[in-house]
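Sequence in, structure out.
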Amino acid sequence: MPDVTSVIHDIGYQRYAGVRLGRRYVVASLYTHGLRTAFGLGRSAKAKIFPWFLVGVVGIVAAVVAAIRAQTGQIVLSYGQLPQTLTMVIIFLCAATAPELVSRDLHTGVLPLYFSRPVRRSDYPLAKLAAMVSALFLTLGGAQLLMFLVAVFTVDGVSDIWGELDDFLKGWAYSAIFAMVFGSVAILVSSLMGRRAIAAGVTVGAFLVTTPVVGVLSVMPNTTVNQLAGLASPISLVSGIGDWLFEPLGESMSGDYGPVYAVVAVALIAGCVALLLARYRKVASA
């Protein structure tokens, strides 16, 4: 009979007996990690340079505008005009952030690991979208908050402060619309490709390629076509909403069609979300 030399070693493996945090915790973690990623937090110094440079540009513009108002009382940029003025900066921020949020995971093939957790197929893209929109809103909204805090000390009387607060809250609402439209388009485009450099370039192109179409339509002899020309591009679409909300009646680029711009913006956001969810149902089943 052969000698029995095999030995069973107890190396201490145990079943997990702690609290299972579940789907809500996973989604919150995805959102928090995405928001940190948008600003390069928890990553190398190189990853922080570009996003924080863009955030710094927005902050410097707001600081200069606030300083001019504090010294001269002149309003160089209103709360609603700030996002429009910084449109290109926000586009570049989208191009830098959206691929980091979704393209990297597609390229490295880690999505099956996410979907093996107790989450629905829609949780991952919605958490990433929420992080993208939040990053854009924090960038714009933070700059507007700086402008408001300085403006409060330059106005006279409580009634003026309430008026300033009303303008500020409208500006925040506009920044939220701005962030949702731009964030939805950027995340959808980046979710279609796994290479971050390509995704960044296509994201910029998605915003700029339709701009010439708006230029052509805006010089057509038909007034209705001129006023609806902004619907052809996400940039002019959001600008049209801003003009409708803040410009005096008759001076808006959208003319009498401001509500149409708002409806199209809602439809664009809903369409991007629907396509994003469809994209990740396909990825999950691949």
